[in-house]
Each structure stands twice: as structure tokens, then as C-alpha cells.
Amino acid sequence: MLALAVVILLSYLVGAIPSSLWVGRAYKRIDLRNYGSGNLGTTNTFRILGWKAGIIVGLIDLAKGFVAAYFFSQLGHTVGNGAVTIPFWDLDAFLKIVAGISAVGGHMYSPYARFDGGKGVLTAAGMLLGIEPLSVLFSFVIFVIILGTTRYVSLASIFASFLYPLFLVMLRYGFGFDIDGSVIILAAILAISIIIKHRGNIKRLRQGNENRISSFSPAKGWLNKEQGAT
Length: 230
Hints:
- It is a single chain.
- The chain has helices spanning 2-15, 19-28, 42-49, 51-71, 91-108, 121-131, 133-150, 153-175, 181-197, 199-207.
- By secondary structure, the protein is mainly alpha-helical.
- The protein folds into 2 domains: 1-131, no CATH class; 133-214, no CATH class.
């Protein structure tokens, strides 16, 4: 149990790093929660601070999930004399999933930001990259295509999340990849969670008033708590 607790705690704390909040303060001495959508995520960083800050935040958020799933999960095999034992479940897959989910939870509810946070898409992508990279690449291609053609970050995120577990099923049953069934279940749960997190965006998409990414330059004339952003 000590090993599992260490994995969960470290993953949560690294996932909780509020990259957009800290970059906003370092870059322009602002709190991003008071600008644009008020969301502590990559999209709002791009919109308010521009592409350079947005890329930095995006890479950090991606790395948080990857580090937790790929590296911190391995502590479960060594801390406390390898005390983690899971019946009927591949131990390595279990530890990666637990570490990744802990990181995503930390990103969404960060104690460094009064338990505020982002929507967890990139941190979840980083976690899944540490578990099974090929299917993440497929989803990333879908994300880029939809973003490039529609300029809706929310729509691209929703479709990429929805298709990800389907790509896993395709790789396992269509091409014989050794993918633990628990990873597919996790992917489905994450997809549902991310889509639910975007329910406000879905409503605005249906109403036709969802914001698009029109420029990668910093926003002019910042609006406090702009409505309708991602």
C-alpha cells in the first residue's frame, strides 16, 4: 500500500502544477483566471498570451501526464519492497493508469490554485502517450485536422477523445497489439469525462456561438471572464 500511495501522491502533485497560472504570472504578471474564459488551460493561454506561452504551457501539461504514467508508475514496483499486488490485472498497466488518472485529477483540481484547474485534455494525452503512443498519434492527427478545418479547439478535443478508445480497440482486435483491456476501459472513461467537461462548449457549438481560434497572437483588449471560450 505504501508503494501505491507514493505513486498516487507524486503523480497528483506533479499533475497539479498550474503551468498556465505560473506562466501567466511570469510572462505578463497576470492571473489567467481573470481573463478570457478564466480556464487554466492551454487554449486560454494561447488566446490571452499568444503562441509562445501557449506552446510552453501545452508541453508542460502534456509532460505531466507522461511523467506520471511512464516514470512515477514504476515506483510501485520498488517502493516498500514492491508491495503492490493486483489480482486479475496486469500490474504495470494498473500502475500506469492509477498514476495517469492521479495526474489528470491534479491538473483539474490543483491545490496550488485553490483547487481550480484546466479540463485535462493534454495531461490525459500525456498519460496515454506513456501507456500506448500509437493510438495517441492517431487521435492527435484527428485533433489537428479538425482544429485546422474548423478552428474550434473544443470540437477537436471532443472528437479526438471520442475516437481514442476506438483506435485502441482497432489496434488490439484488428492488428493484434498487446493492449491490456483495462487500458481500453480507462480510455472510454476518460473520453466520457472529457466530453462531459466540455458540455458547455457542446451547447455553444449547437447554438453557433462557440469561439474559434482566429489568431495565435496575444489577445488585444483582454475581457474579464469572456463568455463562450474554451
